[in-house]
Amino acid sequence: MIQPPASVISSVSARVRDSMQVEARGDSHRIRCRAMSTPVNIAFVTSSTAVARDFQRMAIDWIARFEARYSRFIPESIIGQVNARGGEGGGGDWMELDEDADRLLSICAEMHHLTRGAFDAAALPLLRIWDWKTDPPRLPGHSAIRAALEISGWEKVQRRPRGIRLPIAGMGIDLGGIGKEFAVDQLVRMARDFGISDAMIDIGQDLRVTGRSPGKDAWYIGLEEPDRPGQCWTAVRLTNQAVATSGDYFRSFTVDGRRYGHILDPRTGLPVSNGCQAVSVIAPSCVMAGILSTAGFILGAEEGLELIREQAGAEACITTEHARHQTRKFSSYVPA
Amino acid sequence: MGKRMSGRSKRWVLALAVPLVGVSRSRADDSVGISHQTYAEEHGRIQVNTETLRIQKTLAPWLDLTLNQVYDGISGATPTGGPPIKQLRMRDPGTGAAIPPSSITGYTRQLDGVSGASQSGPVIRAMSQNKVPVTDSPDYRNATDLAFAVTYGPHRLVPEVSYSNESDYRSYGFALNYTYEFNDKNTTLSLGWSHAYDRVLANKNMFLAESEVKNTDNFMIGGTQLLGPGTILGANLTLGYAHGYLNDPYRAVVFEESNLDPDNRVVFSGEQRPSHRSSQALLLSLTQAIAPLDASIEGTYRFYHDSYGIFAHTVQVAWFQKFGKSLVVSPSARYYHQSAADFYGIQFPGDPINDPDRVPRFYSADYRLSNLQAFTLGLETTIKLGEHFDLHLGYQRYWMHGLDHETDQSTYPRANIFTVGLRYAF
């Protein structure tokens, strides 16, 4: 069974702990740290010092362990090993997974189906050829994109109970778009297990709340303005929902006057170019919000909203270059 | 939008008043005019660029048409509401202990978190302790007015429809003005009514959950009287009534026991104005021709009162000097003074969530409802270019000044207003 070595978990835990800041004001507590290459912000309310202390410790341990298990950038993680042994090694061997990893991959499969292929955790070959960090930026050629498409796609992944096989050399798994969101949902569950009824879990600006913010009737979450990152165009009022936003306004490059955003359409292998700037989705779980926001962005305003409307409890606002499109009840979350 | 709401209301009042200014109803030439106006507040505040197309056409001896098409492009920042940090009087909602302004880093709008794609979170910078908080509100406005003037002997009836569209505001208006000349055309009686149905749209508004509606009616009665050779006296009374959503959804207030966010920023709340507003405005004007100088002088006085508790006085003097047959130069000066609305303040007791019992029924920190005065100096010229063209150039300097010794003076705008227009008569 694939597991990350204890030393890797310890190393990641130490890094996350080093970045941790804890703040308490009365019954209000806040933890900030950096994990999964993104800021983590946890706010919660409890009058018990012991509960606060234990939850902080458990939450940070869990986050670090989650990153150590599922980050594709850590070669010893479960995903790192799957990619190395199953895909990059070209072995095509079956690999045994534990129950948690198996469940996470099952969710990937469900979400791939639900989003009509717009979400694809097996699109790593495409991510590898599109590098948004090189300077000067470099475009992959058509042949490279075609080749990457041939070894991408969840339908090529073979699964059996607690087992996975990547049959083609070069295949790979990436949990971007679902990993952070899954972690958010698990941390909310953990908070409830601790008896904490008022909490907000925010990992990389994908977040979920339960209960109320201290002194307020709900949690108020700003939605970032694509034209002015760091500022918000409105807020939503949430009590037991998650909200996630997908957009390519922050990470992109320009070649020959054409802008290439960082969100790829796994069906074409090309950056999304449908006029969408940002998609914010409110949903009962952060996984659902995150997946729908990504899928909505890829599918575009019309098909994206159609998909989101089909999901129980999901509402969305899609910002395009010229307008904002909302589902019918999205405005009911906008505070007076 | 709040600024334009105010402008829109004024436009309707002016529309009612205009027929009374001139005693003669002599028919204008058919004409097409275009103009550009830049209203630019200092220090990066609001700038409005207005393009106007105006067409006047006599369709029949008894029927005139006037069409106005206006496009406004709006940019810049406007005060959100609330004082500079150094003026804040904050208390901890739990303990009641005073929170020193020096520990406060800025303002925020009720946010516990941010959902976005940048994954870096909002950039928190401590704002100056000495500056009023401002917010950007870029927008546009398209407006169309269409009026038909029907003349039958001494009677003139002018129905007018209008439509205005902004990203967050729609306005539909209808007005009906009637004038009657008698006493050898030395006396004019005017009656007018206007109605505006406005929709304030929730899009992008932090303090508005769903679109809201506002209805405004204005009723006017007035007249002009030729008192002697070259002397015209005018008077009119306008009664207004607005009801519905009268808040400005962009304006915020600060309560003494408002929460601070984790970055020690004060959390704003939306303002709350009464949902009804009645107003009375009396306008008096006297125009005197000064034949030896080939000039005229016009003085106007306007008194205004409304149910918000505002009393306002406006005095304006304009000189119209003709030079030859082709040039008119008109310097003008205007002074405006108003008392504050009953519910205006820079900060309010309690907090709607933490201590609702102490919150007043109505509250607004919109500086336009404060005790203030304003001055305008202007110079306008109209130059006749040949037989058909008129060129209009204008400049106005505008100062607004607070008088309550509480509202920070930097809240009040100072603006330059430039106008250039060309009219072709045919």
Could you explain the architecture of this structure?
The complex is a heterodimer of chains A (336) and B (426). In chain A, 34% of the residues lie in helices and 28% in strands. Chain A is built from nine helices and 18 strands. In chain A, the strands form five sheets. A nine-stranded antiparallel beta sheet of chain A has the order 1-2-3-7-8-11-16-17-18. Chain A has a three-stranded antiparallel beta sheet with strand order 4-6-5. Chain A is globular. The N and C termini of chain A lie far apart (53 Å). The model of chain A has no long low-confidence stretch (mean pLDDT 89). Chain B has one helix at 2-21; strands at residues 31-41, 47-60, 63-75, 77-79, 90-91, 98-99, 106-108, 113-115, 134-136, 139-152, 155-166, 169-182, 187-200, 212-228, 231-244, 252-253, 265-267, 269-270, 276-290, 295-306, 311-323, 327-338, 372-385, 389-402, 414-425. In chain B, strand 11 (155-166) and strand 12 form a beta hairpin. The two termini of chain B are 38 Å apart. At the A-B interface, strand 3, strand 8, strand 9, strand 10 and strand 11 of A face strand 8 of B.
Write a concise keyword list for the protein shown above.
heterodimer, A: alpha+beta, nine-stranded antiparallel beta sheet, three-stranded antiparallel beta sheet, 9 helices, 18 strands, 28% strand, B: 426 residues, mainly beta, 16-stranded antiparallel barrel, 1 helix
